[in-house]
Each structure stands twice: as structure tokens, then as C-alpha cells.
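Final paragraph of the annual report: two paired records, presented back to back.
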Amino acid sequence: MSILFTGATGFLGSRLLYSLLVEEGREVTALDRLHCLSGDVSRPRLALPPAHYRRLAERTTAVWHSAADISLAASLDALRATNVAGTAHVLELAEYAGQDCRVTHISTAFVAGRRRDGRVAETELDDSPGFETPYEQSKFEAERLVRAWALRWNRPVTVLRPSLLVTGSHPEEGEPQHPFSVVGRSTGSSGDGFPEGAKGRVRLPLPPQCTLNAVQVEYAVQAMLRLAARAPDRPGAHTFHVVHPVATPVRLLLEAVESRHPGLRLEQAGHVTDPDPAESLIVARLPAFLWRYGRQRRDYERSGLLSLVPDLADPPPLDAAYVRAALGHGPAVRYATRTGVTV
């Protein structure tokens, strides 16, 4: 089996690729703009010469589509070029590769958009609540495209929806960053513009009791590999939430930031109509995803995942020590699987 893999240099993709190569011994062709096979998912035929494209399709028996533009600041048109048109181009190659070529598409749990409360079903794909960011909308449109393709060509597709992916291991220089590490970099004692010596009560426009669904990337990789191997062969898109069963209180994240700034108290005040200069500055310095996703209290159905991977233990909750480590504000904390293998 030869796997075509897109997005090999990303935070998730690099780890999935390593596991496919080292743990499973698979033959993989990595499509990326930087190395391996020079290509571009946003362009027709993946920007490959016709002969190369044909040979790639002929040897490909499975596709893992992980490539995406994850910018929260980019315009919808810019994001569609990679996330929607790019998905269409990858599906075209899978179609050319033949009926037996199995597609695994990496989506996101945040296709649920602005929905703040309740449980999101694995089968749910609804744009009526609207979206917090153009990124969410582009990934929604890509997933809708995948569903339509699976039905049109009578093909099975595995759709994996991870939430925020984090790690308690300290990244090597130059490695892709995850959302919590971005918070840590912007709020540490030598942070990227975070006010030095910040003290006192600072009100933040975040409701009390809100949560973030963040899951250890090491768990997500193991879950994804097993789901892809065990997903049903019947036609259609088979969707799985790769999320944490226990959402992380935003309060833990704020306490980790406070630990780097003695005397600072970050208060979840809901709507702040009269921010003072210090509050405005801190709100501007904290990453955008916190304001987009830090107002949620929803959870996610996991019944499909649990039915297919009962041998993979749930990840432990993200406690204060793990959150500090994920921000880079404490010693590294590693995640261990049920088998006792540390990853």
C-alpha cells in the first residue's frame, strides 16, 4: 500500500507521518511545497507535471489529506484556495487512483461554528449557527464537499474532526507550534509584547465557566491511525470526533498566565463595556483563538470513536501542571498510552 500524505510539515501532520512510517512501516509519498514531492494542493493536478501526476495516481492506494491553511486572520477567499479547492484537487486524484483508494480527510471539530452549548453529533454538519472565523467556514465547506464526493462516487471516506491539539512536551526549535504554546509565547515573562510587570485585576471579555476542548496530540494520532484502519468500508463519509471527553476550563489557562506575572489577576467578566488601557492592551496581545473559542461550553459526541477504538484509553484531563507545560511555563509533561508506552 502506498499512501499519499498532504500536510506533512504541520503540527499534526508531521506526527501522523512519523507514526505511519515508523510505527506502521507504511510506504508514504508526502506532498508538500517544501520537500519530498514538490506540489501544491491549491492548484489543479496538485501542480505536478502530467506524467508525475499519472504515476502518483497509479501507485496511490490510500490518501491522508491533512494539508490546510489554519490562519484565523486570513480572508475566506484566501482560505478557500487551500482548504476547499485543495480538498477538491486531492479528491480528484483519489478518483483517478481508482475505487479501492481509501480517503482519510482531516477536518476539525470547529465546523460546528458559533454553536456555544449542547452536544455536537458526529453526523452533524450544520451551518445555521454561522461561524466564528472564515477558517471554520472553509473547513465546513471542505467537509461538505467530501460528503458529496463520497456519495457521488459511491466511495467510503473517513472524516476525522480533532479539537485544539496540544502537547505537554517542549517543542524543538523550528517545530510547528500548537495553540497553547502560542499563548505561552505571548504571555511569558519575556513574552511577545505582553506588558512587563502587569499587575492587578484585569477584566477579560470571557464568560465564567467557559471551556476549551483541547486534546493531547499524542492521543489524537493514535486514535486517528486506528480509526482510519477500522472505519467502515460502506460508501459515504464516516465522521469521528477526535476530542477530549473532558473539556478544559479556560480558568486553568488564565491561572497559568497569572503564574508568570505575580500580582496579576485575570477575571472572566463576560461583557466588558468600559475597558481601561491595560485591559485593552492585554486583550489585544492575547491570541485570537482565545476570544473565538473561549466562550464555548459545548461538548462532542464520541460514540463512533469509542465503538471502533475501545482498546485506546481516554486521555487524562488537562490539569494545571499540564496546562503550564503546554504553555511552556513548566516542566514537560508526557502522555502515556494504556500499554505504558510513552509517546
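The closing record of the year follows.
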Amino acid sequence: MTIIEKILAKAAGKKSVTPGEIVAANIDVAMIHEATGMPTVTGLEEAGCRQVWDPDKVVVLFDHTVPAADSKSAEIEKRLREWAIAQKIKAFYDIKAGVCHQVLPEKGHVRPGEVVVGTDSHTCTYGALGCFGTGIGSTEMAAVFATGKLWFKVPETLKIVINGKLPVGVVSKDLILKILGDVTGEGANYKSIEFTGETIREMTLASRMTMCNMAIEMGAKAGLIEPDEKVFAFLSGRTAQALEPVRADPHAVYERVLTYEVGNLEPQVSCPPAVDHVKPLQEVLGTKIHQAFLGSCTNGRLEDLRQAAEILKGRKIHRDVRMIVIPCSAEVYLDALKEGLIETFIKAECVICNPGCGPCFGGPKGVLAAGEACIASSNRNFRGRMGKGSDTYLASPLVVAASALDGVIADPRKYM
């Protein structure tokens, strides 16, 4: 069996499963945040269910609009805050923790071989730790809160084998954008993607999280990477639970296999109006930008901040550009402070914001005006997503930083 088949078989109490089979899986962790949580709570209450099935397996977190930007968001957060306290949910992180997809792994809620669901499409990020993480709807989550179970159709698996060493100035974001452009936004609909090969094995956990984070942009149900010592080292001291890693069988059957050699890979940029509209950086050099955004659940980790700081150190951003930097968790923020990265950003005349989603989804802290363009390290660029009538280009932290310096989309390699 493949990784996803083994995880679902275990969760359903079965010896084996096959693609297309419907299984009722036990849920190990269920997460809601303030942007999608209230419909779940309302659905649970309307069903007459007063208590979640297991408060120790529920995580509630505020990350999209933090602190509250208006009366409506304040009321939502107040209601969810009261509900979480009444439910005796220990894993309740108010406005202080950061983006859910960074906080849950940091706090030890994501473990290899488990099933983690969240009312956020980028829950697939957790596959970098060898678990089945997937986004579900608020109504589905109400059912999970009531029963601790959810049905799944066992997905077929697309295996992507990646070998070679990434060139200087090329990082995991460039790789996943290249794959996304090839597979397209619907090319992996309801499939599980297994990323493997020597390139993946050499990647940091942070880089792997970037890869799995964007599996949903290909339509995938999950992105998965076989857990190794890097995962175990990260989780050491973060969870007391025993780790049960799951690995694909040597002769597992895949829907198809794609192979990449990355030795000559160039930086990539996703251009509006769709995430899979990917072009080599050289084809969009000189495109005017008004804002640069470094952050999000895709590229707001310490590794990403380091990459951007390498480009920005001793320099100042272009006078016509606003650059917004948002560490994706309080832990990342503290580490960045200790390393002097925040000082580098401030001296470069960037704006630093508290951990959260920020402008990624068109939320507070960086909405664009009509006719403006942003180069962002985030994961979606549907036209108007960051502000009505605006455009967003997606790229690596290196490209984001170089573009902020030049005022146009720029090649970071000239600064390295």
C-alpha cells in the first residue's frame, strides 16, 4: 500500500484498503480557526450536541484576523473563545500563537501516521511530518466534533520523484511552483501526492512543509513525505505520545509517477490570475510591483526569513515599495529576534507585523488598492484576493526580497 492507504486502513481499523473504497476513519486531531470555526460550532449546537467527542483532540486557534480588525471579527472571536473555554479545550491558542499550520506542528499536535483534519484547505501542510492532513468543510467538522469519525474515499496516489541538488538561488518554493505548473490546478484532483527522492531527503522540514502546503493547489487531497530523523528530531520534546511512522511498501501501486531532475531548475513565478499560471522568473523580470509580502503558512518560517534577510542585509527596499514581513508563529518571531533578522528587516525599512495570516487572504495588514501588484511568498493569487482589482505574483522568499529592492520582479541571484 501507499502511505495514504496505510494511514486510512489503520484509522478505519482495517488490514488494507484500495483506492476508491469508502472508509470511516477515526480522527486523531481536529482543528478550527476563527475564520471558519463558527459554522462548525453552530452546526454542532443545531444538531443538539453539547460536547465534543474528545476535547483533548480538538485545537482552536485564532490566526486570520488577529487582533480583531472590526466589531464583527471581535464578536466571532468572543463567541469562539467562550465556547472553547466551556468545552474545556486545552489546546486553545488565542491571538498570540500564529498561523495554525505552523503552530500545530510546533505544539506537538501533528504526528506521523495520524489523521488530522482542519477547516482550512492548507491543512495538507502536515503531510511533511508523515501524517494525513486534509482540509474539510465546517459541516463535516461538526460531524467530527460530534462523533470523532469522518468518511473518506481512499485516494489514488501520484508519486513525484525528485533528484538532484537545487542550484544557488533556487529553493523548495521554486520546485513546487514548477511542479504545479506542470500538473495544473486540477491535475491531482482528490489524489494523494507522495513527494520522494534524494532532493526531498536532503530538504529541511521547513522546505518539505512548503512542498506539502501547495499540494491543494493541484487539487490534491493530501501531500505526503515519508517521515525520517528530521521529523523525529523536530518532534522531540514537543509531544509525549509515541510516534508510529508509516512508509509506503516497496511495490506499492501508484496512479502515475513523475520524475524531476532539479540540477538546472530556474526560479519560478506564479502569475495572475491562477496559481498554475507559472513562468520561469526570466519571463517576468521587470514587472512593476507596489508591495512585497514575506510570510504565510507557505513561507513564513525561520528558514524563509533567513533567506530574505540574506538579500536585504545592508540594503533598503525601493522607495515605491511597501514590504510586509510576518513571521508565521510566535516561536519563529522569537528565533528571528535572537538571530537579528528582525533588525535587518527594520533597517531595510520593512514593516514587521505580529504572527498571523496577514494579507495572504485579503485580510488586515496589507490590503492592496485597485491596480496595484504584490510579489508574495504565499500560496494563492486569484485576481483580487489581496484587494479588489489587484494582482498577486507568487515566488520564493529570495525573489520577494530582491523584488522589494528593485521595485520590479527581480532575480535574487545577483544579490547572492
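The longest helix spans residues 71-86. This concludes the annual technical report; the extension proposal builds directly on these records.
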